[in-house]
Specification:
6-stranded mixed beta sheet; TIM Barrel; single chain; Rossmann fold; 3 domains; alpha/beta; 34% helix; 17 helices
Amino acid sequence: MLPPRPLKEFNSIVKNSRNIDILFGYCYPSTYRAGMTGLALQILYSTLNARDDTSCERYFRHQTQSPVLSIESNRPLRNNHIIGFTLTYEEDVLNLIQMLQIGKIPVLVEDRTNDDPIVIVGGPVVSSNPEPYVDFVDAFVIGEGDIVVQEIVEAVKNAGSRDGSIAALAKLNGLYVPKVKPTSVSHITIADLDSLNYPVNQIIPDVEEGSKLEPVFGKSFLLEVTRGCGHSCRFCLIGHICQPRRTRSLERLKELVELGFEKTPVKKVSLIGSSLGDLDGLEDLVSWIVTHGAEVSVPSLRADSVTKNLLEYLIKGGQRTLTIAPETGSSKLRKSIGKGLTDSDIERAVKTAESVGYNSLKLYFIIGLPGETDADVDSTIRMIQDIARNSTMRITASVNPFVPKARTRWELEPQLELDTLRGILRHVESELKNTPRVTVESLDLRSARIQAALSIGNRSLGKVIRTAATYGGYGGWRRAEKETGISLLSLASDPERFSNGIPWTFLK
């Protein structure tokens, strides 16, 4: 549904395009709410608009007046020199293609001419495995784009033609240009976070609290504390492609908060990063934010990093839900996946949260893990029941299927058949149905099948993707399978899925 009037925002930027060399269209192929929740948008928008020669404006597939007219000035999507997408979730590729179609930009690379924008895609999906999307994308950013986006602009600015721009992009470290057919592509990792420019003038939608256009974390200053994760669980993409774990210094983090509150009209800080509890100064940072009169929130914490002092500070900062990810109730299986948490760690974290005043708890679990048995599933059920029995908090158990991800240690593991996953989930839901204060939620299992296929698939899936985008929704994938004769929904459990080789081995 379209908003009833043009969207109002703080800190958006409109430039006079007549004085600009490069027009950059930043696209998020999903809702405005989801895109504005992501840190990548704020970083790239700020970085590009800090250049005198560049104007970056934003486009979203849903919740805006048009997916192909920019938020800032209604600039048509195809009027940009460069169109950059962040692909965070595999299924959003359909939205990406639809945005190109609606914007009258040729969907296939081979059909584009010198008059068409250059289409670049980054994000965790393509950093893991870009091959299913090569039909539609001129260049992929493999890894972190904070600095290379500057090099991309320079390359296109100095090239005399579209082909010249593509050739120049192919020479940049961390860019994958399929047309050039490189034998290897390096992954960009930025070592020193303190040295990076960071957006302190963050864009905030001027909407009422609770609006469907409000970011997931609410109106808050996004503070990236860490990148990467030091634990590298076998199934986790971030723990593999974002290595090594890096942190900003406590002094720099405090400086960014102070600058952020000067430039961004909010009174809340949302801390961003994996395994934040591993940060030595986290308690210091949270208490410092709270003493400055601001609210603060953190994403999920490792259970073994939870302390009473930290949770007390978070309570003062307005957070009332503790989120932890046991992954499985089986200590044996938890050890197998590399999680490294004990039952005692989890029990202690829950008790501590309740003792300091938390009123709700969110727990993440995975079903269908390699090596999982019926006993392991029952262990998960018992863990949830035991927590509910010994606590008065509301509990949301998010139970989702294992999705093999390229470039992880479990990249070659199969996903269970759909009927098997359904049976496991039904068993979990049935056993927990009458457990007081427990709600079970799960990703649509059909979506998990699509995600898995796109994660480990090769470039032959391009035909399926393009056809599915014509129809949209899950039914679109089914019709695309039938019309193209290419299996997608069963791919991740097909014993022959890698018979022609592993598609992403050229990523180094």
